[in-house]
Amino acid sequence: MSDSTFRQTGGASAPLGTSDDLDLSEARDWIALLKPRVMSLVVFSGLVGLLVAPGGIHPVLAVTAILCVAVAAGASGAINMWYDRDIDAIMRRTANRPIPAGRIRPQAALSFGVFLAVASVVMMGLATNMVAAAVLAGSIAFYVFIYTMWLKRRTPQNIVIGGAAGAFPPMIGWAAVTGHVSIEALVMFAIIFVWTPPHFWALSLYASGDYQRAGVPMLPVVSGAKETRRQIWLYSLLLVPVSLAPTVIGMSGLAYGGAALVLGGFFLHYMWRVKRDEQDEAGVSRSNDAPARAAFRFSILYLFALFTALAADKLVFGA
Ligand code: HEM
Ligand SMILES: CC(C)=CCC/C(C)=C/CC/C(C)=C/COP(=O)(O)OP(=O)(O)O
């Protein structure tokens, strides 16, 4: 393998192929720092916020605004990975990330993240308005300082409060068009805010071993699976009425309302399977991961579908 390049990956030498392959795998690592899969839903919800806002902006500015949301989310993901590199190295799910695996230097990741964060906020301010730029800066700060640095390692309520970071994007999209934050933007924020605990706690039920090893006080680690299932159920019950708020305040029509009801029914079905998984009728524990895994996957599909319905209702029926 004369043209092969070897590099240290987490202490083991790994063949990486030609220099072209090396460039590609390096690029993949920098992209991985941006948490692109999580970013997809963040960007989509931001796009819907922008589409449902009254008035409109030039398509080039709209694309720029959405790009800024993507870059800001990615930047905060990179800073999160820089700060969390010690615990990411311990958790199986995250151990192969570029920093703990030794493929990107922590300092380089931090500089990359800070540069992108500043660039996204400045660009948002120039392309749209100060309100959108300020809310964008606030979401980055929330994810980095409030969630990652302050709450994540301190309290099992970390994701309830810190989850607000991920609820801002539709508000940013709305503000990019209108220049202000109104009740409609707050309603979209509230939907994601209430959705986040069932979304994350479903995952944490089957990833709690990881969090326990890393000493992160996620709810199942601190209060147990039963309490986590109870809280998942309570937030899910709350999510259904909150998801109907766009129709109640006249922001969306009955088509959205119907879609939200049906989707809410499915959401409750998946979360109920998690809740009832604790015990069978005889009170014997028959817990397994399958319902929580299915509920986590559905939570993502749910939010994509709900925001699609919000946009479709507006674009098709002009509600
Ligand atoms: C504090 C709040 C949140 C926490 C702690 C959290 C945590 C997580 C974790 C640990 C994963 C698994 C990722 C992996 O396998 O590496 C995940 C996946 C995901 N999250 Fe969240 N999340 C939060 C909020 C959000 C928000 C607000 C959104 C979007 C609106 C979102 C969208 C997604 C998506 C799309 C995935 C799937 C990624 C994949 O396919 O791997 N999350 N989340
Ligand atoms: C516009 C903007 C700045 C949005 C950013 C908000 C954002 C991406 C929120 C999502 C929150 C999230 C992915 C938390 C993951 O938790 P974690 O970091 O504990 O997950 P990990 O264990 O996978 O690192």
TrEMBL record:
Reactions that this protein is recorded to catalyse: heme b + (2E,6E)-farnesyl diphosphate + H2O = Fe(II)-heme o + diphosphate
Signal peptide (residue range): none
Cited InterPro entries: Protohaem_IX_farnesylTrfase, UbiA_prenyltransferase, UbiA_prenylTrfase_CS, UbiA_sf
Pathway membership: Porphyrin-containing compound metabolism; heme O biosynthesis; heme O from protoheme: step 1/1
Additional information: Carbon 2 of the heme B porphyrin ring is defined according to the Fischer nomenclature.
CDD domains membership: PT_UbiA_Cox10
Keywords: Cell membrane, Heme biosynthesis, Membrane, Transferase, Transmembrane, Transmembrane helix
Protein known as: Protoheme IX farnesyltransferase
Gene3D superfamilies documented for this protein: UbiA prenyltransferase
Bilayer disposition of the protein: Multi-pass membrane protein
Enzyme nomenclature, EC number: 2.5.1.141
Keyword rRNA processing: no
Transmembrane segments annotated in the record for this chain: 38-57, 63-83, 104-124, 130-151, 158-177, 183-203, 232-249, 255-273, 294-312
Recorded family membership: Belongs to the UbiA prenyltransferase family. Protoheme IX farnesyltransferase subfamily.
PROSITE patterns noted in UniProt: UBIA
NCBIfam families xrefs: cyoE_ctaB (TIGR01473), PRK04375.1-2 (NF003349)
Subcellular location: Cell membrane
Function: Converts heme B (protoheme IX) to heme O by substitution of the vinyl group on carbon 2 of heme B porphyrin ring with a hydroxyethyl farnesyl side group.
Main enzyme class: transferase
